[in-house]
Design a protein that fits this description.
Layout lengths: L3 E6 L2 E8 L4 H6 L3 H6 L5 E11 L1 H16 L4 E4 L3 H9 L8
Parallel strand pairs: 2-3, 3-4
Antiparallel strand pairs: 1-2
Length: about 100
């Protein structure tokens, strides 16, 4: 199992590792990511170029994050979407959520 980590710079969060049901709980519990999203005041890009694996839980978390941000009037853009995530988004018919 590959862990999930992230780095933040102004307006961008770069994810590294797996965005899966195994990695998300520990990554979110031990990080300030949820707080960062809840308190965001400007648009955010998620750079997914370093994501090595993603499952439906990862997609669900991305949709959850989108909702948190939209609630505060902040937009979320996904960049460098891995093919595996793109396929899940198409299967779930949610590709337009992130446009």
């Amino acid at each position: 199992m590959d862990k999930l980590s992230f780095t933040q710079s102004k307006g961008e969060i770069v994810f590294n590792g797996e965005l899966t049901r195994e990695s998300l709980p520990s990554a979110l519990k031990s990080s300030s990511l949820e707080s960062l999203l809840k308190n965001a005041q400007s648009d955010i890009d998620f750079d997914l170029s370093e994501v090595t694996r993603v499952d439906t839980a990862g997609l669900a978390w991305l949709i959850h994050s989108l909702g948190l941000l939209q609630h505060n009037g902040v937009s979320l853009k996904l960049r460098n979407i891995p093919e595996q995530l793109h396929n899940l988004m198409e299967l779930g018919q949610v590709t337009t959520l992130f446009e």
